């Protein structure tokens, strides 16, 4: 059943992104920013972790989880390190994902030749 919920919740998040493209004519950058902010707000009110527990990868893989990670790290470090933790928590939680995306993109660019 977890696979079904992951598919439905992940598909719903992707459908919202597609609606932003098709109906509201938002650019990919605006759509990604909107979904990150929505993920951050949902985590800020404490609803993203229950969503991840319910839907698994359907909620933890889409771009909304990046906003979740930013807020989650900032709030976690705020509790342990005070106000400076807001800034350090953002980098601490997301640095591995961002670094791996940069490294793998670089490696892909070395291997693949773009058509143009």
TrEMBL record:
Give the transmembrane region(s): 6-24, 31-48, 83-112
Q: Is Membrane given among the entry's keywords?
A: yes
| Keywords from the UniProt entry | Membrane, Transmembrane, Transmembrane helix
Q: Identify the InterPro entries for this entry.
A: Spore_V_AE, SpoVA
Q: Which domain of life is it from?
A: Bacteria
PANTHER family, A to Z: STAGE V SPORULATION PROTEIN AC-RELATED, STAGE V SPORULATION PROTEIN AEB
Q: What is this protein called?
A: Stage V sporulation protein AE
Q: Which organism is it from?
A: Marinicrinis lubricantis
Q: Which gene encodes it?
A: spoVAE
């Amino acid at each position: 059943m977890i696979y079904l919920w992951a598919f439905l919740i992940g598909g719903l998040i992707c459908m919202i992104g597609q609606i932003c493209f098709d109906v509201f004519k938002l650019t990919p950058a605006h759509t990604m920013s909107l979904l990150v902010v929505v993920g951050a707000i949902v985590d800020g009110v404490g609803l993203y972790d229950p969503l991840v527990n319910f839907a698994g990868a359907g909620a933890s893989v889409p771009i909304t989880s990046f906003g979740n990670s930013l807020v989650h790290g900032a709030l976690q470090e705020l509790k342990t390190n005070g106000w400076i933790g807001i800034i350090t928590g953002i980098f601490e939680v997301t640095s591995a994902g961002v670094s791996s995306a940069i490294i793998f993109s670089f490696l892909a660019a070395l291997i693949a030749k773009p058509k143009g």
